Prior knowledge:
By secondary structure, the protein is of the alpha+beta class. The chain has helices spanning 13-21, 61-73, and strands spanning 2-5, 33-39, 49-52, 77-82. The protein has a four-stranded mixed β-sheet, covered by helices on one side.
Amino acid sequence: MVQFESAVAKPTPFQQRIAQQNGKALQAVHGQLLNAYLTRPPGNAPFPAVVALPGCSGVSGSSKKTWPERLSSWGYVVLVVDSFSLRGIKETCDRLHFVDRVGDAYG
């Protein structure tokens, strides 16, 4: 397992304009600590990489172990980002649309 900080989320120009019209100032939101699971094929050669973001049910056995091991056996480095656990989220299947998780890809 590895940990890293997600990207800083800057307000969009639209968000800045709306805030300014309401007399408010927006600040960038600092990144959050994320867990990730790294699987590598054997050897020292440069390898292509896959960054995997699990579906709405979070990191499970297949997304944490089965798929990374399969992709690694095909010669890929795989980083499975767990953007849920350190935020205390169990699943988002009935609460968020995929567009709401776009920021998770920028970690």
